[in-house]
Amino acid sequence: MEDNITTVLFDLDGTLVDTYELILTSFRHTFDHYVPGRFTKEDCISFIGPPLTETFASILPEKTEEMVQFYRNFNKQHHDTLIKPFAGVYDTVKTLHERGYKLAIVSTKMKDMVIKGLEATDLHPFFPVIIALDDVKYAKPDPEPIFKALELLRSDVQEAVMVGDSNHDILAAKNAGTRSVGVSWSIKGKDYLQRFSPDYMINHMGDLLKIVGVEANAKNDQV
User: Partner of 71 for a Cys bridge, out of 2, 30, 78, 130, CB 3.0 to 4.6 A?
Assistant: First the structure.
């Protein structure tokens, strides 16, 4: 347990909200259009985490922006039917909010889609600060998004923790000097995340309450 944590930064996709099916379907739809037969659904797992421009530039540099837009159009169209919050997320975030913790989203998605995801899962009211891809020059694992969130929350790195499902989240936390929490439900696997040495690994979002010092509510409802 850490008694001095006042601030919790969350990644969105794969951490708070189960968007894996949406993301993988969006990648497959895009790749089937531009490079048919080149990638399987399983291949697309490795593309989760980095910004879309980075992924598509590595495949068809001359079509990067076109592919990004193609992906986003499909993703937005199917968004609300293919996402859901992970177990315990709503109750845990609500508890942190009620206990006065400073909360923010730090994501590599564009802000309009971050807000769309938060609204679809009723989490939007809990996050006064959202740092998305279009808010920064450098995305995670660069520390810029974390620094920007902490500045808006008026928090210091020593009192913050970053929660995420990707190596980009863990490395961003290390680069910024905050503590990090990996989530075992990452599609890349718990063992994969452990390679990047997060300070904590949780098996249920409710476990986060004990880490940040909300002892009385450590056993969250298994939603």
Answer: 30
